[in-house]
Amino acid sequence: MARDMTDKEILKMELAQLKKEVDTPRTPVNANCAETVAYVEELSPNDPLIKGVSDEKNPYKGDKGGCIIT
């Protein structure tokens, strides 16, 4: 798309994008980090990667055998 455009058209498109971005509300990074940490800590008790999966709910446990690499 940009290959078919002149330099002037590309600059107009970039200017239009920058005008959209200038109205985007900004928040400080430390505020975003604090919100992210709170969100992760709130969900961590139910996270199977942190807590683990019980044997009853784990479809990969059981009598299926295993894989042996020789």
How does this structure look, described?
It is found in: Cell membrane. Its main location: membrane. This protein has a domain of 42 residues. It is built from 3 helices and no strands. The longest helix is centred in the N-terminal third of the chain and has 16 residues.
The residue-averaged pLDDT reads: 86
Distance between the termini: 53 Å
Radius of gyration, rounded?
25 Å
Query: Beta-sheet strand percentage?
Result: under 5%
- Determine the fraction of residues in helical runs and give it as a percent range: 40-55%
Number of helical elements: 3
The total count of strands amounts to: 0
Low-pLDDT stretches: none
Family: Belongs to the G protein gamma family.
Protein name: Guanine nucleotide-binding protein subunit gamma
GO molecular function: G-protein beta-subunit binding
Membrane topology: Lipid-anchor
Fold blueprint:
Blueprint: H1 7-22, H2 29-43, H3 48-51
Outline:
The chain has 70 residues and is an all-alpha fold. Helices cover 50% and strands 0% of the residues. The model has no long low-confidence stretch (mean pLDDT 86).
List keywords for this structure.
70 residues, mainly alpha, 3 helices, 0% strand, elongated
